[in-house]
Design a protein that fits this description.
By secondary structure, the chain is an alpha+beta fold. Helix content is about 40%, strand content about 15%.
């Protein structure tokens, strides 16, 4: 059976085995609910405590325990004595609040990270991750670290580096697309958000480039200046290579640049547009706070989302 993007969980946290998985979930439930007592045992215990302040009578303890465990004291009411019923009801109600809190926390942890908006997050063992054929890149998956799925492919990224990886990939792809269009010069200007240093170089996009440099403009915006030998027409259509150019289908600015070059040919002398990174994909400080709260890890120092806009200018 083939795996589609719709079959893949939004986010995952992987543990070595079932024992570690159960321990991790129990820890998350306890830290999220902040309730030392939950379920029937907690209800019964709190029912007993509440009943201690009620005048004693025959069968008081039995009524409080049984009534508390039933969350509401209904089961305790048949036992004689007004103190029994009052103790069971008060204990049951108070204990029930804590018990429900524990149940709610457990359900939210099973569904995903509480409060993060990631209903698709799954907790699994390393074996289960392998069976689902989840791709974590070249590095081995780290137990207890939350990974978020790449929005366009089967690739899971530690939450801490999610935006850095995506933005670096998007810039690299854009520069490669520009090079294919055949310009002699490309200028990238950072208007807002992540700077050139955040990308950390252009990797494969710089291959075969004649010259490249980085400088600061008069307005303190970072500028990347790349120069190539150039060619009269695009060497290929990025739309025909989705594996190599996954972002191209999402970027209208790049598509417009390709069409302009293809239709204008040697007549077009320059072009410009915007490279925008504007979707946090729910990976933000709120998610990181929840991950820390339930005892998991983001995989390192968390890099928060910044809406980023770079201006590109091509010279042919």
């Amino acid at each position: 059976m083939s795996i589609t993007m719709d079959d893949l969980p939004t986010a995952v946290v992987v543990f070595e085995d079932n024992a570690a998985l159960r321990k991790g979930k129990a820890k998350a439930v306890a830290r999220w609910s902040k309730a030392p007592l939950g379920g029937g045992a907690g209800v019964a215990a709190l029912g007993f405590v509440a009943g201690a302040f009620v005048p004693p009578a025959a069968g008081t303890v039995a009524a409080m325990v049984v009534g508390g465990a039933a969350v509401g004291g209904v089961a305790g009411s048949p036992v004689p004595g007004p103190g029994n019923i009052a103790g069971a009801i008060v204990g049951g109600v108070v204990g029930g609040v804590f018990g429900v809190a524990g149940v709610v926390a457990a359900r939210r942890v099973r569904r995903g990270h509480p409060g993060s908006g990631h209903a698709g997050c799954q907790w699994m063992t390393r074996k289960q991750a392998d069976e689902k054929n989840l791709n974590f890149g070249e590095a081995s998956v780290i137990p207890g670290v939350v990974y978020h799925k790449h929005p366009l492919k089967n690739h899971y990224i530690p939450v801490s580096r999610f935006h850095q990886v995506l933005f670096h990939e998007k810039v690299n792809e854009a520069v490669e697309v520009f090079r294919i269009l055949g310009p002699t010069r490309l200028q990238l200007t950072v208007k807002q958000g992540y700077g050139e240093g955040f990308v950390g170089g252009f990797g494969a996009a710089d291959v075969a480039s004649a010259r490249g440099r980085t400088r600061a403009s008069k307005s303190n915006e970072y500028v990347r200046d790349l120069q190539w030998e150039g060619q009269p027409l695009p060497t290929l259509n990025p739309m025909d290579h989705p594996g190599r150019f996954p972002w191209y289908r999402e970027d209208k600015s790049l598509q417009s640049a390709y069409r302009a070059r293809l239709e204008g040919g040697i007549k077009i002398k320059a072009d410009s547009g915007k490279l925008i990174y504007a979707d946090a994909y729910d990976v933000d400080l709120k998610l990181n706070a929840v991950i820390e709260k339930i005892g998991l890890s983001a995989g390192g120092k968390f890099i928060d989302f910044k809406r980023t806009e770079w201006i590109w200018k091509l010279t042919y």
